[in-house]
């Protein structure tokens, strides 16, 4: 690397990068990073270079080691936190999703395997790749903030309740988002010294009242507001679920996977609600997870 937007790759040579490589360059120069390999790939009509590095990292400590946060991945929002914060989807995402919907309609109209059909399919692949990149970037920013701020982060291991109504496309995006959220939190919590708790998929975080612990038999997916029949609490559905996850972290303190820096006595719920560990009786059977993401060569 000889300047801020170029990388030199063995057997390929000098490559101009779209994004600045300043951060990496600085770390290489300070001897805190050693680049082991570089991989060039092509996806959705763009080239990417990724580096495998050996990094010297300080043992981290989150800013608020005593605080617990529950995270619920969403569709309307990128995520909803038990603090009540709704992390918005990145701005360009909505436009990109509209484009995908339009291209999908266009693809159906085209004659299969025709030149126009191939063209539409290629543009659809690109649009999907763009959505994935936008979400990934936003997710990285969120997981970095969570892992560096809170002592304990709670996430559901699989959420079948928070889904939107937009059938297969949104389901695919939602599943991918949740998987990525968990994947990033797993290593970042370890890096920054926070503790990650994964709540069982059987835990009825959506159906449980985060204030009194009452559990609803049925909570239809289209009900976006949680209304408790027992104590009368009215709360945003996702916020209620996120609060339950945070309370669960306190209930299972010490039994979840811990990072070496986590301290049990530091864990304390920052909520007034209590959690319920009952199993969900009437788990809804949901449709197939068919994801209409076209796989093409993208060229
Ligand atoms: Zn209640």
List the helices and strands and how they pair.
Layout: E1 6-9, E2 13-16, H1 22-29, E3 33-43, E4 46-55, E5 64-73, E6 77-81, E7 86-88, H2 91-109, H3 115-149, E8 150-156, H4 167-192, E9 195-199, E10 225-227, E11 234-236, H5 237-251
Parallel strand pairs: 5-8, 8-9
Antiparallel strand pairs: 1-2, 3-4, 5-6, 6-7, 10-11
Describe the structure.
The protein has helices at 22-29, 91-109, 115-149, 167-192, 237-251; strands at residues 6-9, 13-16, 33-43, 46-55, 64-73, 77-81, 86-88, 150-156, 195-199, 225-227, 234-236. Strand 1 and strand 2 form a beta hairpin. Among the domains are: 6-55, no CATH class; 64-86 and 147-266, Nucleotidyltransferase, domain 5 (2-Layer Sandwich), CATH 3.30.420. Helix 2 packs antiparallel against helix 3 (115-149) and helix 3 runs parallel beside helix 4. The protein is built from 5 helices and 11 strands, in the order E-E-H-E-E-E-E-E-H-H-E-H-E-E-E-H. The protein is flat, with a radius of gyration of 22 Å. It starts with 5 loop residues before the first strand and ends in a 48-residue tail after the last helix. The strands form 4 sheets. It has a 5-stranded mixed beta sheet. A two-stranded antiparallel sheet has the order 1-2. With 299 residues, it is an alpha+beta fold. Zinc ion (ZN) binds next to loops.
């Amino acid at each position: 690397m000889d300047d801020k937007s170029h990388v030199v790759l063995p057997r390929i040579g000098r490559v101009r990068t779209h994004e600045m490589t300043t951060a990496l360059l600085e770390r290489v120069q300070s001897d805190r990073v050693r680049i082991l390999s570089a991989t060039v790939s092509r996806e959705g009509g763009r080239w990417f270079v990724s580096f495998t590095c050996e990094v010297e990292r300080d043992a981290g400590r989150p800013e608020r080691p005593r605080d617990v946060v529950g995270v619920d991945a969403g569709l309307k929002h990128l995520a909803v936190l038990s603090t009540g914060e709704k992390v918005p989807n990145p701005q360009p995402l909505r436009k990109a999703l509209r484009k995908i919907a339009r291209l999908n309609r266009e693809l159906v109209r085209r004659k299969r395997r025709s030149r126009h059909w191939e063209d539409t399919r290629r543009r659809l692949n690109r649009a999907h790749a763009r959505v994935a990149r936008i979400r990934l970037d936003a997710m990285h920013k969120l997981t970095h903030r969570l892992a560096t701020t809170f002592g304990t982060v709670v996430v559901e291991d699989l959420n079948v309740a928070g889904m939107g109504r937009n059938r297969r496309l949104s389901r695919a995006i939602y599943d991918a988002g949740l998987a990525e959220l968990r994947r990033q939190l797993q290593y970042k919590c370890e890096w920054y010294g926070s503790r990650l708790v994964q709540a069982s998929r059987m835990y009825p975080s959506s159906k449980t009242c985060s204030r009194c612990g009452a559990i609803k038999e049925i909570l239809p997916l289209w009900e976006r507001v949680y209304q408790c029949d027992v104590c009368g609490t009215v709360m945003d559905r996702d916020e209620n679920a996120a609060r339950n996850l945070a309370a669960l972290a306190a209930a299972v303190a010490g039994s979840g996977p811990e990072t070496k820096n986590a301290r049990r006595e530091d864990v304390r719920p920052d909520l007034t609600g209590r959690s319920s560990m009952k199993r969900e009786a009437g788990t809804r059977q949901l449709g197939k997870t068919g994801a209409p993401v076209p796989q093409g060569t993208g060229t």
